alanine--glyoxylate transaminase (Carpinus fangiana), 451 residues
Amino acid sequence: ILPGRIKQQESALLHRSLHKAPLEVVSASGHYLTTADGRRILDSTCGAAVACLGHGNERVHAAILKQLNTVAYANSLIFTSTAPEELSRFLVDSTHGHMARAYILSSGSEAMETAMKLARQYFMEKSTPESQRINFIARRESYHGTTLGSLSMGGHVARRALFEPMLLKNVTRVSQCNAYRGMSGHENTESYVARLAQELDDEFQRIGPDTVCAFVAEPVVGAATGCVPAVEGYFRAMREVCDRYGALLILDEVMSGMGRCGTLHEWEQEEVVPDIQTMAKGLGGGFAPVAAVMLNHRIVDQFIKGSGIPSHGMTYQAHPVACAAALEVQRIVQEEDLLANVRKMGTLLGQLMHEQLDDLPYVGNVRGKGLFWGVEFVRDKVSKEPFDPTEGVGIGIHELALEEPFSLSLYPGAGSVDGRRGDHIMLAPAYNVTEAEVRHIVDLTAATIKK
Ligand code: PLP
C-alpha cells in the first residue's frame, strides 16, 4: 500500500470509492488538496463540481460559526429562522419572478425525489382520481441521483445495473440531445431539434398524453456522458411539447446550475422557464450539504388552493447551518461578480481544450459550457466506436493524472449508455480560477492523455 492511502478493507467507512486505496486528504486550501504523503493536487473539478469558491473561505467559515452560535438546528416542521428564510428569498428572487417558492434539502438526490413527489402531488390535487398523471418521460443518457426514485429517473446503465428491475416503473425514455452522438450528417441544428421534438411528441402519444406528469432533463448532462450541452433551440422545443399536453418541465440543475455554466440558472440561456428545478452542488460550494427545489407559481398556487402544503418533509430540510453557508457562498458569488469570471475563464478553457486535445489519439469529442467541460474518449475517432468500459480508459486517465508529475484531479465516468458509451473525464474548476490556472489545468490534462 502506498503511503498516504487508506486500504478500503481496513477502513470502517463503507461507501463507494473509485479507488481500492483512496488518497487521504489532510488539508484543502484554495484550488489545491494536500494528501498525507505530501502531494499538492490541483483540484480541476471542485470535487464533483461542488467547491465553486475553492477550498476554505474565511467569510463562509465565519457565517457558519455565527449560525452555530445562533440557531444550529430547529425543527423546520414547527419553526422557521432567518437563514432558511433568507436563502429561499434569495433563490426565488434570482429567478426574476418566475419561481414562487424554494424547498431546501441536503442533497441532489433528495432534491430530485422531492421534485418528483411535488409534481405528482400537483396533479393529484388538480385532477380527479381517475385522471391521474403518473408517468415521467426522462432521457436515456442521464443521471438524476442515487436513491431508488432518482436512480429510476436516470438512465445511467452502469449505476442502475444492480437494482434492475427498478422500483419506479412509470419512467419511459427519449434520446438525449447530443450533437456529437445524435446528429446525423445530413441534419442541421434545426432539423435535429425538430426530430427530437417529434420523438418526445411520439412518446407522449405512445403512453397517453393525459398520463404524463413531467418531462425531466439535465440542461447540460453531467455524470452520464460528461458535460453535454443541448443544441440551440432544443429546450424551447421540448417546452412546447410539454405545454401542448399540459405536462410539467422539470430541469435538473444539480450539477449544471448555480453558476457553473455562466448564469446562475442554466435555463436562463435556453430561453425557457421550467415548472420545477433542482439545484445542489454549487449552491453551498461544499461547505455544507445543501440542495433545493424551486416551484413556479402554477404549482404553488395549486397547493395553496388545495391542501396548502407539500406532502413531504425531512428532518434536515432547511437546516439553518447549511442555509447560512449557502447564503454566504451566494453573496460572495454576487459581490465578486464571479459569474463574469466563469464566462471569461470558461471561454478560455474551451478554446485551450479544443486547441490542445482535439487532435490527440482517442479524444472523440470536447464539449461544454461555462466552467463545465468534458472529453469523451473513443477507440476510433472516425467511426466513434467507444471503448469497452471494462478497459477503464476514463478512470485510467483520472488515476494517472493524480500521480506525479501531474498531480491533477479530473472527474471520470464510464458505462452510462448501453453499458458502453460514456467513457469521459470532466473539468469543472472553481469560479475564481485564474487564467494561469486554466492554462496549467489544460497543459496537465493534455500531458496526461498523451501519456
Ligand atoms: N442530479 C444530477 C444532474 C447530478 O449530477 C447528481 C449528482 O451528481 C444528482 C442529481 C444527485 O446528487 P447527489 O449526489 O447530491 O445526491
The two ends are 24 Å apart (CA to CA). The chain is about 35% helix and 15% strand. Residues 360 and 450 are 7 Å apart (CA to CA). The chain has a mean pLDDT of 93.
